[in-house]
Amino acid sequence: MIPPLTRARDGRPPAPVRMLHLGLGGFFRAHQAWYTENAPDAPRWGIAAFTGRSTRTADRLNAQDGMYTLVVRGPGGDRFERVGSVSAAHPGGDRTAWLEYWREPRLAVVTLTVTEAGYTRTPGGGLDTGLPDVRADIAALRASPHAPVRTAAARLLAGLAARRRAGGGPVAIVPCDNLPGNGRTIARIVRELAEAIGPAWAPAAAHASYVDTVADRITPWPADETAAAVAAATGRTDAAPVVAEPFAEWALCGDFPAGRPHWEAAGARFVPDITPYERRKLRLLNGGHSLLAYAGSLRGHTTVAEAMTDPLCRTWLTEWWDEASAGLDPDPGLAAYRTALVERFSNPRIAHALAKIAENGADKLLDRVVPSVHSARRSGAPPVAAARIVAAWLLYLRADTARPASGSLRDAACDILHRLDPALARDPALVDAVALQAGELTRK
Ligand SMILES: NC(=O)c1ccc[n+]([C@@H]2O[C@H](COP(=O)([O-])OP(=O)(O)OC[C@H]3O[C@@H](n4cnc5c(N)ncnc54)[C@H](O)[C@@H]3O)[C@@H](O)[C@H]2O)c1
Ligand SMILES: O=P(O)(O)OC[C@@H](O)[C@@H](O)[C@H](O)[C@H](O)CO
Q: Which of 256, 287, 289, 322 has the fewest CB within 10 Å, making it most exposed?
């Protein structure tokens, strides 16, 4: 019988909790928890991590004292690394524990990976008070500051308010999701939520430093066989292993009023301006992923690596990168990043499902593709490659519905652009460009 992974046998004592994480999924474990594990002061920085709602990952991790294996999957083989920085795991519904951690004076950092949709914003970037969950949270917190809430912003605000009442100092809030100015975005959402609840809530929203970050490491959902590979290679059973590529990057910009782990020793960069890092990543990597997710799926592929073997997908990717790079700062290392991306996307041992990348297209394309559409429109050049991604998304959605497609491609192009940003649907040249690309894609 293969023994299970445990802290007593395989790790170090749990570090005192000074960090909270919301969104206990694969990426947090491959990235933020891994950077913390590899910081020289790791024994002083434990993380309490919360899922969105489910109990499964928290239960599995707690059964092995928070320890898990990161499978670093290169094109030539796997490396198995043990990570012990998660001192406690909780289901997202455990609001008593959540608020209790916020009241702890030693809490210093709160990280987030709640997906783009988790930011509950309008296309203009403000709090979307039209969303039922947002409305429910406003009503709940008006009724009681301890009420159960659903959205990430309400959980943060309730935590900050509990901390202020307990006399705790400001903390750093560090979102790691793929959206531009993620720190400034969540700051605005939390502030607008506080305003919507009532004037007494404003000081809580201001009781934090909001840090902008770009967090990069391709982390697919692990396949079922991962646990068996881990057991065979490490001699331990692990019910919560994670798979990620060897590449990892983390750029951060902002203040940490209560301190932080020495993440720079593990490779993180603290930069004065996040913009070049986020544009490079969101447009080239994430925009490229979205292109492959929609256009690659339409051509019958199921993973990123598979789509990379298709010459037509590769041509579209090159055209997108050329168009998206126009106007981008050549620093930090735009050309090298692009070269490395070809290798990262082509890693045949990473099974990154196109269907997962394709989820929530409206939220994702807003940050990955729409900025390129705007720059092309400003320069007077029609956006060909960006229009192709929007067109591929349109066809992907049509293929996904059981109903037969109705209406002209031009009408459909107008509708889909309206979903992204109503102003885009009022540009006839852009609508034509998307309809033209959709027509061409259906003929490929
Ligand atoms: N996977 C990657 O390669 C990668 C890389 C960079 C950034 N990211 C960011 O991390 C996010 C999560 O990716 P993942 O691979 O860990 O996904 P995942 O499906 O493994 O986990 C997502 C986690 O977030 C939680 N969650 C989802 N919506 C939430 C909400 N509204 N409030 C609170 N929690 C919520 C889920 O319950 C789950 O615990 C992505 O959406 C992206 O923004 C991922
Ligand atoms: O995680 P999402 O859903 O925001 O986007 C899917 C991928 O583009 C993304 O996860 C990348 O793999 C990641 O951003 C690489 O760092």
A: 322
Nearest to 267 by CA among 247, 243, 284: 247
Q: Say which residue the tokens 């690309």 belong to.
A: 437
- In terms of Cα–Cα distance, which of 377, 378, 374 is closest to 366? 374
Model pLDDT for residues 239-286, shown as the tens digit of each residue: 999 999 999 999 999 999 999 999 999 999 999 999 999 999 999 999
Phi and psi at residue 401, in whole multiples of 5°? -90, 145
Cα–Cα distance between 238 and 227 in angstroms, integer?
6
What's this model's pTM, rounded to 2 decimal places? 0.95
Tell me: the pLDDT tens digits for 109-161?
999 999 999 999 998 899 999 999 999 999 999 999 999 999 999 999 999 99
Give the integer Cα–Cα distance in Å for 187 and 185: 5
- ipTM value for the complex: 0.97
CB of 31 closer than 6 A to ligand 2?
no
Counting from 1 in the atom list of ligand 1, the atom nearest the Cα of 220 is: 1
Cα 250 to chain centroid, rounded: 13
Q: Which domains does the chain have, with CATH numbers?
A: 7-270 (3.40.50.720), 275-443 (1.10.1040.10)
Q: Is the CB of 357 under 6 A from ligand 2?
A: yes
Q: Which helix (H) or strand (E) holds 202?
A: helix 202-205
Give the pocket of ligand 1 (CB within 6 Å). 22-28, 51-53, 92, 113-116, 118, 152, 176-178, 215, 217-219
Residue entry with tokens 């959540």: 98
Q: Return the ligand 2 atom nearest residue 178 CA.
A: 4
On average, the pLDDT of the chain sits at: 95
Ligand in nearest proximity to the CA of 244: 1
